[in-house]
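I hope you will forgive my troubling you with a question about protein structure. I am sending you one protein, given as its amino acid sequence and as whole-number tokens for its backbone shapes. Thank you for your consideration; the sequence and its tokens are set out here:
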Amino acid sequence: MIAGDVEISAEPPPPTQRELLDEGVALRRVGAFADAVGLLDRAAQLSGEVSDQVAYQQGVLAEVSEQWRVAITAYERVAERWPSSTTASDARFRRAYCLEELGEHKAAIRAVRALQRSGNWSDVDDRSMALQRGITELRAGRSRRGIRRILKALDSGTDERTWIRAKARLALVRAQLGAAASVRLKGDKKAAKRLKKRSQLISSAENQAIVMFNLSEPEFALEGLLLLGDAYVRLYEDMVSYPPPKSVPEEQHETYREVVLDKASILLTKAHARYDEGVRVATRTQWVGSVTDRLRVARDALAAQLAGDPVVAP
């Protein structure tokens, strides 16, 4: 519009609810949580066809920020206001996840069982519920049952719910690394076999992690890298603290320890690589949160150790 010699441009229309939602989700996915909160709050104040998705994404944002109670409240609100929507189904699944993260494993299992009994579900819903139930069983100590349920569900197909598949893979990584840590290096003759078994379990966890990374879910990928780094550090510490076999004369103990330190040092290098990869992934995706801080602290501490004087065995 032109008035005299002055050109006056029309004001751009305000963003729609859908536009605010899309931008808020995009910011959340790169870890810009504070900006995402503002956009989703603005979207929630508007009426439109995606109000259920806005409310759901507010829950997801609280969840990835580890505000579990806030997320549960948001998911319950979605399920109550839009009970028949696909968004409500996802909200119910993620509510069970938040209960599990709070350590309320029995409540999480009851929630999933209630969902499974509540009606006819699609194959995608059935798979999600089976994965969530298996994850919760693992966290509750029902390891064999949980692993079987997760593997069966993962083998049944794929869908767009990459977050639950990534979470299930992370649960398997955690279970395998937990099993590895439980293999104690003891007995002169059994120690070598136990070391091999422990290494194989860590390797299996690495394979699960690779599949998980390809699902492009940073939150779970970063946690997996942290767990792998910790597993390598723990194995290193167990190796260098293990006493020399009885067959090694006492005057050769120092030489034996030096050899073990030299061979075990590769484990610290692997641990540092996992921590560093996690920090780089967090930087690339602009992911913030406690897992990013823990990765950075672990990486820097280990870098200082590797750059310093040779580590002396306990």
Residues 309-314 have pLDDT under 50 and may be disordered.
